[in-house]
């Protein structure tokens, strides 16, 4: 607990870390409580206010059905942000386990696993996600699974490289000398001491997960109507972009803002958890 507080204090002393922490905290609050604080029904039609510009009643304007864009953004944050975080957690967990196992075992097993990972990483992440969705079908849950699987290979290489350096340290050798099992050494000795770079990488990858999830929804392979997922909102607004730019501009700014927020938080965590990188 004290270590967490110290990390948070150090993070708030970093300009990008402080800004990223504040923005991410606000965005997470909005993602959780968005439907509660939405000023209007996100699916409520106001045909007398179609394509409205920002006004006192509709702060972000309205779309072609007269739906309040602010309410749709607040409600859609849950399906955009939280699902992107879930996809990142899935990819981080799978990749970390593969990387730790490969680095700890070593030898021909490590070589075989890493060559398979290299082959998968040769496929662009978005294309790999599209291939997985072709098999699983189009839905938000399948998009989360596809993004998680696409992120796993890159995370496994980071986990492996950290494991290779940690496994040679004295406390790991001492655990082997005591006769501890391999599972105990992995989870009690190696995992706690290589989690910092994994957390930093995962934080930055949330931004990529959000953009990838929005892209898949834009292509019609993620969230489906009438969802207010931000990428889907942009896709649906394409036909009306010359009538009013607000249905595209508002979710586009939201996606850019949250990507910037997680990137700033990741940069701040990198400087705090790895002072040598800052130097």
Structural class: mainly alpha
Fraction in helix: over 70%
Average pLDDT works out at 85
What is the string of SSEs from the N terminus onward? HHHHHHHHHHHH
Low-confidence stretches: none
Q: Largest sheet, if any? A: none
The N- to C-terminal Cα distance equals 27 Å
| DSSP, total strands | 0
Number of helices: 12
Rg, rounded, reads: 22 Å
Q: What is the strand content?
A: under 5%
Q: What general form does the structure show?
A: elongated
Give the structure's gist in a few sentences.
This protein has 279 residues and is mainly α. Helix content is 74%, strand content 0%.
Question: Can you walk through the features of this model?
Answer:
74% of the residues lie in helices and 0% in strands. The chain is mostly helical. The model has no long low-confidence stretch (mean pLDDT 85). It is elongated, with a radius of gyration of 22 Å.
Features:
mainly alpha, 0% strand
Secondary-structure map:
Blueprint: H1 2-13, H2 15-37, H3 69-105, H4 107-121, H5 125-136, H6 140-166, H7 170-177, H8 182-190, H9 195-218, H10 230-237, H11 246-273, H12 275-278
Helix pairs in contact: 2-3, 2-11, 3-4, 3-6, 3-9, 3-11, 4-6, 5-6, 6-9, 7-8, 9-10, 9-11, 10-11
């Amino acid at each position: 607990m004290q270590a967490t507080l110290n990390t948070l204090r150090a993070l708030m002393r970093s300009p990008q870390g402080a800004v990223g922490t504040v923005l991410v905290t606000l965005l997470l609050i909005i993602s959780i409580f968005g439907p509660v604080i939405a000023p209007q029904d996100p699916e409520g039609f106001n045909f007398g206010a179609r394509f409205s510009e920002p006004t006192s009643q509709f702060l972000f304007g309205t779309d072609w059905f007269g739906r309040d864009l602010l309410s749709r953004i607040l409600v859609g944050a849950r399906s955009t942000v939280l699902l992107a975080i879930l996809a990142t957690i899935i990819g981080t967990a799978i990749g970390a386990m593969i990387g730790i196992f490969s680095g700890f075992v070593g030898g021909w097993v490590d070589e075989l696993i890493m060559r398979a990972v290299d082959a998968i990483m040769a496929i662009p992440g978005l294309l790999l996600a599209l291939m997985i969705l072709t098999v699983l079908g189009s839905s938000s849950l399948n998009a989360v699974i596809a993004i998680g699987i696409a992120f796993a290979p890159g995370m496994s290489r980071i986990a492996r490289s950290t494991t290779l350096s940690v496994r040679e340290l004295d406390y790991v050798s001492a655990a082997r000398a005591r006769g501890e099992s391999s599972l105990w050494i992995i989870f009690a000795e190696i995992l706690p001491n290589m989690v910092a770079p994994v957390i930093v990488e995962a934080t930055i990858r949330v931004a990529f997960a959000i953009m990838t999830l929005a892209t898949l929804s834009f292509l019609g392979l993620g969230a489906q109507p009438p969802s207010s997922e931000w990428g889907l909102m942009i896709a649906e607004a394409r036909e009306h972009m010359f009538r009013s730019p607000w249905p595209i501009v508002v979710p586009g700014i939201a996606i850019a803002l949250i990507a910037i927020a997680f990137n700033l938080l990741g940069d701040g965590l990198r400087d705090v958890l790895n002072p040598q990188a800052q130097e």
